[in-house]
Amino acid sequence: MIPPHSSSTLNGLYVNNADARAALQEEAKTLPMLLLNSAAAANVVMLGGGYFNPLSGFMDKADALSVAQDLHTRSGLFWPIPILNLTSAEEQVEPGTRVALHDPNVDGMPLLAVQEVESVELLTDKEIEQVLANVYRATDLQHPGVATFAALGRQVVAGPVQVLNYSYFETDFPATFRTAGQIRTQIQSHGWETVVAFQTRNPMHRAHEELCKMARDAVAADGILIHMLLGKLKPGDIPADVRDAAIRKMVNVYFPKNSVITAGYGFDMLYAGPREAVLHAIFRQNAGCTHLIVGRDHAGVGAYYGPFEAHAIFDEEVPSGALAIQIFRADHTVYSKKLQRVVMMRDVPDHNSDDFVLLSGTRVREMLEAGETLPVEFSRPEVTRILMDYYRETKPFN
User: Fold this and answer.
1) Which among 178, 201, 216, 380 is annotated as catalytic?
2) Domain end: 167, 196, 229, which one?
3) What global pTM score does this model have?
């Protein structure tokens, strides 16, 4: 099986032993409390689930700046995005202590993890700008990822963590949330050796479905991991429970039985484009996948990234041998009226725009809000019904 990133075994930081967890919960009652922001809480969940393997906790300032600038920690570990516990400077956290990390996303703000505080440092405004410019390739506060990061705080609380639960993800999505280790176990139980992963923060339309099948056939994969983000998105995106239902319906009806693992992970979307695409590759390598589909404007938002920057970063900035997972580079995938099937645009140079069924995201939302059925060439009827029910109940864009 493909090894985890930069290690021979998966290093999930969740405390599996029940007695050890109970002891930490008792200890936490005596420790200073630090209420996390949602981004840091999601980082804890990802550390616990092994997706951030081989990290042992939150980065310090020097590692964060090194990762932002050079995609490596000071020790030489290849890593694309700083993994930080950022707080406001008003929080009194002392180096050399242990703190109880509490969850902002669950009622009552329960204990999430215990952190050993190795250092507490402040990022300057210039350093914040450097991180934004390198990681997000933007400093514009209209960029949702930039706006979120800029509001997290300036105080870097670094050190290893011991994770005690998976926030709301395990309870709200019991059939879907899976750790990297659990997915590895599923892959092994299927006897799969070659596995292609598809990352999604949206419901899957016909083009996404066919792209998964194209990639599976192109790399001769034994199976597919459809891996959905379950955390926070920008305003207006489809909620995770609706996406989950739509994706499961599509898989159950239109994929061969036992050919797909449908799972989700507990992370908030960064919208960091190329850098986030690399992070997505690390997630899937840690989960046991051999290939990741990287699509057009992967992890992008608005017009901040070029359509294929997320392809180029793997050629231009990821050192040879840094990742064991391979990338399946996908073009814009749409339904061809001429061929009456879904195609990648690069494969049909004889087509023009009139030969495709093209719907913008805005037009899709307008149709769903108006109760109009999406074209069957664009969306499976079973998926459309789930989305229409959601828009009929909520009409979030009105």
Assistant:
1) 201
2) 167
3) 0.96
